[in-house]
């Protein structure tokens, strides 16, 4: 047998000191789980089964959601087609460095989402009604609805409109209104076209059209879209889209990438178109001037009859032509500088492209112009998806404002240098012209006319070359992004996840039952388990007595092997460890309140001791509410009160228990009006000394200590005290009083008996008690079903 008794405490330590010094958190937690929850395992099993059935029902009827993924490579720096002198290089037609964060914002912008919704006509989609969930008919929808004026669809909750199709009459019923197919019809959602899809037919179940506004459709698209970089170092963007239809999800992602690339190409082509317009305008002017010069040369040669020019004239002409060519380049550069200066100081509304930099070779100016062009393009792109007061736009505005003064300062410096060079060239031409005075007048006139012809011809050839380069750049413009992986849906639904749902259902089932048990225990104000006692006091628990449904006063007898009887035999053995043996014969039994079973403990403990041939006397010292004589059917008078008042000798009051030669009862006697004064009248010591000489054990059943002081008055005359605590009867607030009595020794050597312990759930084991037998089979069958639902 395993008896829960504190036998010795070495080194003179106070009771419970070792337990306080040793951490018990882990043991207490495991014991709490085992006692509070595992005892109700059938409830947990039933809850888990019900939760799993509900989870399978949910998985059966839940609408699956698929994840569609695509990856897009954004080129940080585009390669140029020509050298540094090419027009594309000077104009930076193929863009510059890309900001990966900006591109992600553009992909997730409302502008692109709205364009995708318009291209795919996502404003109206057909659904087939089901028993529990409606099913989207995307790939096999029998009708296609083209909304020509999506802006007229009202915002708010998507509208559901009943749909039916009469193939014989070729009409579609929308909200009880017939509309012909393949025709532009006017509806309350604006003009639209309804087209039957070949190879499809109307489903058997009822169908309806869900119509969403342009704003709502774009917002739903963005809510299901996730744009993330693959890694911090890479420029690859991953697009994830969740949709109940994998075909629709793939179409949306692919269309989003196409619209994004198309918008990028359009931005590039606008730069090339502006350059082309500038070159074409210059070509028209130079062509007109060249035609005039050629006609002048032709007319002069015809009128003067000039065929050849002398070698000296040729040398002068070559020098003058060279200077004139340089002078023309200077004039063109000054013209370009003037146009750039006008753009920087005050560009026209709607003009957001830097003018062409033809002829300019200054690297600093070209770099500043390129940076200004890049900042202007970046601002225009972000303004489509970002508010005007955005920190990003404000930063770009500050950057543009800082670039303009530098460009203007560089233009002034370059203009000064060009004008100085122009003056030198004009001075040199003046000297050459002075030399030409010696040439005959006709040759000089021809030289002047021919010089103009050559100059205009060189300019014309230069402009033709640049126009072809610009046209090539315009035709070869491509997006700065490349599709790495096209949109593709996963083979299995993204949601709901079977294992996650099942695990969550099991967790909810277990938590539900555990919650009910926990709430019930939290609301219980009485002592529920051994752990409640151990947490509140260090007083040792010497025994646990199981609850007996038979409700008999005597549960132990010679040859009786029930669980309760064995526990009383265990308590009997524990008395020697409490110091109740030999000359120490007196044992006090008390409790906190009435109804905790102290009289029951006293009677059966006394009978247990008498079974080993020990003479035992049981004193009914609960003078206010005596119960032992009533429980054993013995007359209550005369008794203790008669002896204390000196009226009856002690031997005459001892009453043997029928059928037990070793057990005697000393009843309470007449209920006195002053029990406390009787105990203190001085005859108590005489009575106990006499009984010690006559019996091996003296057991005193006294009044509850929480109500009166009788137990405290009797404790000094006893060798040990059994304090009865009953499960679901003793209030928890009284445990603090028990601890105070244990520490102060006001109730003597206090030890606790945990009485009326009931098995929780279907377990037959009492928490914290080592020795447990199985209940008999009849009791098990009787209590099994009831205990399943007992929380």
How would you describe the overall organization of this protein?
The radius of gyration is 54 Å and the shape is elongated. It is α/β, with parallel strands linked by helices and 791 residues long. The strands form four sheets. It has an eight-stranded mixed beta sheet with strand order 14-21-20-15-19-16-18-17, sandwiched between helices. The protein has a six-stranded antiparallel beta sheet with strand order 3-2-10-5-6-7, with no helix packed on it. Strands 11-12-1-13 form a four-stranded antiparallel beta sheet. The protein has 24 helices and 21 strands. Helix content is 49%, strand content 16%. The model is unreliable at 1-27, 78-96 and 764-791 (pLDDT under 50).
Give the structure's gist in a few sentences.
The protein is an alpha/beta fold.
Explain the layout of strands and helices.
Elements: H1 17-21, H2 25-37, H3 41-61, E1 66-74, H4 87-91, H5 100-107, H6 110-120, E2 124-128, E3 135-137, E4 143-147, E5 159-166, E6 171-174, E7 177-180, E8 184-187, E9 190-196, E10 207-211, H7 214-223, E11 225-229, E12 236-243, H8 246-304, H9 311-345, H10 363-383, H11 391-436, H12 441-475, E13 481-489, H13 498-523, H14 530-536, E14 541-546, H15 563-574, E15 586-591, H16 598-610, E16 616-621, H17 628-632, H18 640-644, H19 650-653, E17 655-657, E18 660-666, H20 675-679, H21 684-694, E19 697-702, H22 710-714, E20 720-726, H23 734-744, E21 750-757, H24 777-788
Helix pairs in contact: 3-13, 6-7, 6-8, 8-12, 9-11, 9-12, 10-11, 15-16
């Amino acid at each position: 047998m395993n008896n829960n008794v504190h036998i010795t405490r070495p080194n003179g330590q106070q009771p419970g000191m070792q337990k306080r010094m040793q951490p018990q958190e882990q043991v207490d937690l495991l014991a709490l789980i085992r006692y509070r929850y595992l005892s109700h395992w059938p409830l947990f099993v039933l809850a888990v089964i019900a939760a799993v059935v509900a989870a399978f029902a949910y998985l059966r009827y839940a609408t699956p959601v698929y994840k569609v993924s695509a990856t897009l490579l954004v080129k940080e720096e585009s390669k140029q087609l020509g050298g540094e002198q090419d027009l594309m290089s000077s104009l930076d037609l193929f863009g510059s460095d890309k900001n990966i964060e900006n591109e992600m914002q553009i992909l997730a912008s409302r502008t692109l989402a709205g364009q995708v919704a318009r291209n795919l006509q996502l404003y109206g989609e057909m659904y087939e009604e089901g028993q529990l969930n409606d099913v989207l008919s995307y790939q096999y929808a029998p009708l296609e609805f083209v909304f020509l004026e999506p802006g007229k669809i009202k915002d708010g909750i998507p509208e559901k409109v009943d749909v039916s199709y009469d193939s014989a009459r070729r009409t579609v019923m929308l909200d009880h209104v017939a509309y012909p197919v393949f025709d532009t019809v006017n509806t309350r959602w604006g003009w639209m076209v309804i087209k039957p899809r070949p190879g499809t037919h109307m489903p058997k179940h009822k169908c309806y059209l869900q119509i969403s506004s342009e704003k709502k459709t774009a917002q739903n698209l963005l809510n299901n879209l996730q744009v993330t970089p693959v890694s911090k170092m890479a420029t690859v963007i991953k697009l994830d889209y969740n949709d109940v239809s994998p075909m629709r999800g793939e179409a949306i992602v692919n269309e989003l990438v196409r619209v994004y690339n198309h918008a990028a190409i359009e931005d590039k082509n606008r730069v090339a178109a502006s350059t082309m317009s500038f070159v074409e305008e210059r070509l028209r002017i130079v062509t007109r001037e060249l035609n005039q010069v050629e006609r002048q040369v032709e007319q002069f040669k015809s009128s003067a009859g000039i065929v050849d020019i002398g070698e000296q004239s040729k040398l002068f002409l070559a020098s003058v032509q060279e200077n004139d060519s340089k002078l023309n380049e200077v004039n063109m550069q000054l013209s370009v500088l003037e146009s750039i200066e006008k753009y920087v100081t005050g560009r026209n509304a709607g003009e957001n492209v830097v003018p062409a930099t033809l002829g300019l070779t200054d690297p600093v100016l070209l770099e500043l112009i390129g940076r200004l062009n890049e900042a202007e393009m970046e601002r225009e792109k972000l303004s489509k998806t970002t508010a005007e007061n955005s920190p990003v736009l404000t930063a770009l505005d500050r950057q543009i404002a800082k670039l303009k003064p530098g460009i203007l300062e560089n233009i002034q410096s370059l203009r000064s240098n060009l004008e100085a060079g122009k003056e030198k060239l004009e001075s040199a031409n003046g000297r050459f012209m002075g030399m030409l005075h010696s040439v005959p007048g006709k040759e000089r006139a021809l030289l002047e006319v021919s010089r103009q012809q050559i100059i205009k011809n060189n300019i014309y050839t230069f402009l033709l070359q640049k126009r072809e380069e610009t046209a090539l750049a315009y035709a070869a413009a491509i997006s700065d992004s490349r599709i790495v992986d096209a949109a593709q849906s996963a083979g299995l639904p993204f949601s709901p996840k079977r294992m996650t749902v099942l695990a969550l259902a099991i967790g909810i089932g277990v938590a539900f039952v555990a919650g009910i048990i926990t709430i019930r225990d939290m609301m219980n104000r009485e002592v529920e388990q051994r752990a409640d006692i151990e947490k509140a006091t260090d007083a040792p628990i010497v025994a646990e007595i199981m609850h007996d449904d038979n409700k008999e006063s005597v549960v132990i007898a010679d040859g009786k092997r029930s669980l309760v009887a064995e526990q009383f035999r265990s308590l009997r053995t524990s008395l020697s460890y409490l110091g109740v043996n030999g000359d120490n014969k007196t044992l006090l039994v008390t409790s906190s309140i009435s109804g905790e079973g102290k009289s029951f403990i006293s009677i059966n403990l006394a009978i247990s001791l008498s079974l080993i041939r020990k003479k035992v006397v049981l004193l009914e010292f609960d003078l206010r509410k005596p119960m032992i004589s009533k429980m054993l059917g013995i007359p209550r008078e005369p008794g203790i009160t008669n002896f204390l008042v000196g009226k009856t000798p002690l031997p005459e009051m001892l009453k043997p228990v029928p059928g037990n030669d070793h057990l005697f009862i000393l009843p309470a006697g007449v209920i006195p009006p002053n029990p406390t004064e009787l105990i203190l009248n001085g005859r108590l010591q005489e009575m106990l000394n006499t009984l010690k000489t006559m019996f091996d054990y003296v057991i005193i059943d006294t009044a509850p200590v929480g109500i009166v002081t009788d137990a405290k008055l009797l404790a000094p005359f006893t060798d040990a005290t059994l304090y009865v605590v009953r499960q679901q009867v003793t209030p928890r607030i009284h445990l603090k009083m028990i601890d105070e009595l244990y520490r102060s020794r006001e109730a003597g050597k206090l030890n606790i008996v945990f009485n009326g312990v009931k098995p929780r759930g279907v377990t037959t084991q009492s928490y914290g008690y080592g020795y447990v037998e199985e209940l008999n089979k009849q009791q098990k069958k009787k209590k099994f079903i009831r205990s399943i639902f007992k929380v």
